[in-house]
Amino acid sequence: MATTTKAVAPAKKKSGFGGLKDAWILMVICLIIGYSFYAFVLGSPDNFVGGDKAGHPANLMGTVYKGGPVVGLIFTLFLTVVMLGVERYFALRSAFGTMNLSKFTAQVKALIKSGKFDEAQALCDKMRGSVANVVSASIRAYKDVEGLQGVKKAQKIAKIQQAHEEATQLEMPTLQMNLPIVATIVTLGTLTALFGTVLGMIRSFQALSSGGGADSMALSQGISEALVNTASGIATSWVAVVVYNFFTNKIDKLTYALDEVGYTIAATYDVNHTDEL
Q1: N or C: which terminus of the chain has fewer CB atoms within 10 Å of its end residue's CB?
Q2: pLDDT, averaged across the chain
Q3: If 0-12 CB within 10 Å is exposed, 13-18 middle and 19+ buried, where does residue 114 land?
Q4: Which residues in the chain come in under a pLDDT of 70?
């Protein structure tokens, strides 16, 4: 008997905010803001005794300014993490859809087990987002394989699972977009802090070795540079770790929901159909 082939319909086009693809633009903006804040806000004459930047700081902002140009770079990394965190929040909010994920998963599984695929598709249209796109692709694959003749049930189930996996892979880049940058800043923040700390210690030792005695202003400036860079770099890495783990956990939750629904669709076909000879 001849085998009838039928292409599985592709997943629907994504709707809503899909994320910022050109993250380098955001990083350049953060760089400008970071160094502008360092130069014009922290470096304001009001933050120093007598209005002299070369003198002693009059407040905490002046002390942070004494951390040197590396502070501007650390601020850039910090702003990048915050901005990408906001970007990922709205992107994943769109990907999760308009309904509670657990509620949607339970409802769509119940409809699929009952064979109410039209109602399940309508629920996906209402839900929208990445989860709904993948489930819709699996439902269309289910309907498509039902029309195939001369194909064994195991092969049809494999086609359903393949459609589900392909739809999932199409959605994953949107979900994980820009998270590698945040993961890089986790390490880069600490390394930048170490670099600034080393520069500060070098300046301190130069003050100790100059002339017959230590220049107290140069010594204090070197120590301030070391400690400020250490503190700000660690804070940046801390925020980056929290942001990365938070969104990674949300993506894992969404992926588990997709796997659960995909298994339900394949199992439903296995129960409701007999193998063809």
Answers
A1: C
A2: 85
A3: exposed
A4: 1-16, 210-217, 275-277
- Reduced to 3 states (helix: H, G, I; strand: E, B; else coil), residue 57 is strand
Exposure b/e, 223-243, CB count within 10 A at least 16 = b: bbbbbbbbebbeebbebbbeb
Q: What is the pLDDT at residue 52?
A: 84
The residue with tokens 């990083």 is 27
Q: In the numeric block, which tokens belong to residue 208?
A: 């100790």
CA distance 49 to 91: 46
Nearest to 43 by CA among 61, 59, 27: 61
- Tally of CB atoms within 10 A around 156: 22
Q: What is the pLDDT of residues 22-81, one digit of tens each?
A: 899 999 999 999 999 999 999 999 998 888 887 788 888 988 888 888 999 999 999 999
Counted residue by residue, the chain has a size of: 277
> The whole model's pTM is what?
0.83
Cα–Cα–Cα angle for 183, 188, 194, nearest 5°? 145
